[in-house]
Amino acid sequence: MLCHSRGKRSQGVVGDRVQWLPSRDEGTIEAIEPRRNLFFRSDAFRTKSFAANLDQVLVLIAAEPAFSSQQLSRALIAAEAAGIPPLVILNKSDLTTPHQRAWDWLAPYRAMGYRVLSASLAEAGPEQRAALLEELRGKTTLVLGPSGAGKSTLINLLVPDAQALTSELSRALRTGKHTTTSTHFYWIDAARTTALIDSPGFQEFGLHHVDPMHLARLMPDLARHVERCRFYNCTHRHEPGCAVTQALQVEAADGPISADRYRIYQELFEELSRPRFA
């Protein structure tokens, strides 16, 4: 049922539960039910919502083209901030050397406790499809990833009629075609207990909704050391007695912090400390 929000601007996002009333051959959204969570990004000027009421965020990256550690970290921080468990899948395991290089590079993320899986979606058979479905079963999952990572391949593998469903929706919305600015919700099973949300690609992933003083607690490798800092309001950049910077210099018993991850922290702290414009 195609429904429209009352008023000029819709406050709903994909995944919302709503109250609606029929109106001729369409409907009107009367109210949006309270959300369990909302996954979004925000830059200095605006906020872009992806989806609501999620059980997990699937971050899809590939051995080639090379993915950005900055973008991966931003997506994981956004998931941590929203309280949504993330799942990372490294695609294109058939590219042996690049895949091994990328897998080794992801070792710190596995050490942080993130679930990181390997896949070859373009060559996936029934066994790998079943394994992927098991990771998604009973959950509403947002698929996030850069261009070329294989998002469309994943969606078509798990939702064989996705293109037909998208075309049907496009006709209903009178757009005539599917665009990459759209977010689509697909039920995977007939019982409607498992859902996949296909999100549009993005070039930047802003985190301006994150308090810079809370940033370290959203990065598991840094968060392990925060409580031992000398000052409660430590920025983990230059203060004496900072357990985070000490973990950079020595092999900490409860987990090291890589130079790359600390660089990302510093850059994000600087970015998030700048004023945000209304």
Labels describing this entry:
six-stranded mixed β-sheet, Rossmann fold, 9 helices, 278 residues, three-stranded mixed β-sheet, 21% strand, Ribonucleotide Reductase Protein R1, domain 1, 32% helix
Describe the secondary-structure layout:
Blueprint: E1 3-5, E2 18-23, E3 26-32, E4 38-42, E5 47-52, E6 56-62, H1 69-82, E7 86-91, H2 96-105, H3 107-111, E8 115-118, H4 126-136, E9 140-144, H5 151-158, H6 162-172, E10 184-187, E11 195-198, H7 220-226, H8 243-249, H9 259-273
Structure overview:
The protein has 278 residues and is α/β, with parallel strands linked by helices. It has 3 domains: 30 residues, no CATH class; 161 residues, 3-Layer(aba) Sandwich (Rossmann fold); 62 residues, Probable gtpase engc, domain 3 (Ribonucleotide Reductase Protein R1, domain 1). Helix content is 32%, strand content 21%. The chain has a 6-stranded mixed β-sheet with strand order 8-7-6-9-11-10, sandwiched between helices. A hairpin with a 7-residue loop joins strand 10 and strand 11. It is globular, with a radius of gyration of 21 Å. 28% of the residues are buried.
Number of domains: 3
Distance between the termini: 35 Å
Q: Helix fraction?
A: 25-40%
Query: Can you tell me the CATH class of the largest domain?
Result: Alpha Beta
Count the E strands.
Answer: 11
Structural class: alpha/beta
CATH topology of the largest domain: Rossmann fold
Architecture (CATH level 2) name of the largest domain: 3-Layer(aba) Sandwich
Radius of gyration from CA coordinates: 21 Å
Low-confidence residue ranges: 175-180
Biggest sheet statistics:
6 strands, mixed
What order do the strands of the largest sheet run in, or round the barrel if closed? Answer: 8-7-6-9-11-10
Number of helices: 9
Strand content: 15-25%
Looking at CATH, the homologous superfamily of the largest domain is P-loop containing nucleotide triphosphate hydrolases
- Global morphology: globular
Q: Assembly state here? A: single chain
Mean pLDDT across every amino acid position? 88
- The secondary-structure element order is EEEEEEHEHHEHEHHEEHHH
